[in-house]
Amino acid sequence: MNKKFIGLSVFTLATAFAYAQESDTLKVTNLKEVVVSDTKFAQSKEKSGKIIEVITAQDLEAKKGQNLANVLSQVAGVEINGNQSFNGKNLGYYIRGGRNRQVAIYIDGVPVSDASGINIEYDLRLIPVEQIEKIEVMKGASSTLYGTGAATGVINITLKKSAKKEISGNAYINMGTQNTSNTSKTSAQDFNQGLSVNGTINKVSYMTTLNSTETKGMSEAAGEDFEEDTFSRVNVLQKIGFKANDKLSFEFFGNYDRIKNTFDNSFDGIIANADDLNNNSFSEQFRIGFLPKYKYNKGEFAINAGASTIDRVLNISNSWSGTIDNYNYSGRSASIDAFNKYNFSKQVYLVLGAQYQYFDMTQKDAYTDVTREGAKFNLLDPYANFVYNSNFGFNLNAGLRLNFHSEYDTYYVLNINPSYTFKNLPLKILGSISGGYITPSLYQLYGPYGNLDLTPEENATAEFGFESQLLDKKLTINAVGFYREEENTFGFYYNSATFESYYINVDGTYNAKGVEASVRYTLSERFNIGGNYTFTQVEEQLNRLIPKHKGNVDLNYKFKRGTFGINYQYVDHRSDAYYDSNIWATQAVNLAAYQLVNSNISYELLPNRLHVFGTVTNILNDDFQELIGYNTRGRNFKLGLNFLF
Fold this sequence. Notes:
It contains five helices and 35 strands. It is mainly β and 645 residues long. It has a 24-stranded antiparallel beta sheet that branches. It starts with a helix and ends with a strand. Keywords: Cell outer membrane, Membrane, Receptor, Signal, TonB box, Transmembrane, Transmembrane beta strand, Transport. Pfam families: Plug, TonB_dep_Rec_b-barrel. It comes from Flavobacterium lacisediminis. InterPro entries: Beta-barrel_TonB, Beta-barrel_TonB_sf, Plug_dom, Plug_dom_sf, TonB-dep_rcpt-like.
């Protein structure tokens, strides 16, 4: 099917272009954009004192064929390392010079994490982008509202909601090539498919979705004599909602995610060992949640409650013994966040809340046996957030959070975020000083290198910026400069004389600073162009894999029955390191800068019924590395169908 696949892709693109000149009769109603990240309750974005990056359903539609990591990596100030690698490659999240553990991820208001992981980080590979309705990315320390982990940013994901009619749904399938810059296979080796059925019957809404991905065609590791790796993902989501009346509503959800993949043996800078198909991993997650909301005359009360279990298994071939080493991890977590918004007036309201979280884990392998009876902790965090929106342009958001932890002393963080919108100028200025903290993980406390004397890692961010809308709001420009400090950073102590090793809080203060800027020009309802630029400067101790300069430019055109988009991304050189066992030392390397050009086109074959799309990624076939020793994708093609009913 190789030549047929490429021929069909070209035919689809050509057909869509042929219709690009048709007149556009679609009328679009512009609504004020609403965000929830900086208060936990919906408010107009123009009243927010933060520059919150919002990725809408329309934005995701224009990026068809890209996964969640690809989409997030195009946001100003965000670098998702591994987004251009094989699907099985684990991801690194870098926001404002931070790392995975400093980024909090929420899905429908419920925190998601892996309690068994070293950093309790959540694996974004578990989420198919097809389930997502909207993403808000709020950068800076945000622990007053979001607790542990919200030190450099919060990624707030909203899943799709049920349609208002009794039954609705869609089915999709897409397939694409899977090439590095040195291969040119034309057969489809990346398959994605899914089905969603949803609707509303009287007071009850429902949604059932099934998504799956199967990928092969390239090796995760770069080098010779490596066989192709495989990646498989299955996702099932069930949501049930009940709207008792205009004031009271409930939502329940259940979610199952599974990933299986093969991967390559470890290497010493330059790959020395051939791939062993016995290397594989399995990850399985179950999530449930309960989200009641109640509105009353003076405010609104909500509970975001959820629980999850994650089981991970790694089977790694041991080149020394010739055997397979098995590593088994299991983590459980639960969160109940109850919060109330009380309106003192149209301009003033107060959010009071309390969040309880519980974590436990197990780890079992040939060398370690950690049980959940001995590896668990809980947190109880009361918090308050005060919001003042004046009628003369001044807004203030200020908050306080106390963190009561079962293993260390009470900790607190503050936030103050004023902003001012000029009445006679199309300009809003904003600033903030905010705190964040990261709780030591179960592994860092109770694992084989655990240390019960660990205290939270502390972060503080100061930022100042502006947002302006010009040319009758067709041109939007924003920019923010930030300075971030972290103390009590988690590190690893090793004594070569006694072979003693354990986690520690590193003395000293490290900082990161930078600028994030975005611009968007909407010429008409059909055409817009925009881009962003990020400058990040971090101290040497924090510098690994963080580009100093990064930029994105995209152009989007909407014609009568379809859309066309093209985007360009530049990523500056980065530092990396690997352990060279030949000299028993860590070697520093410099990864070269790279650039990507991607294009996407979609067309409605049957209006509101059948859509087709085609994408070409890395059009220039740039040869680069995201991480030393690992492959990245070259030029690839993808073609897809989406049927709505």
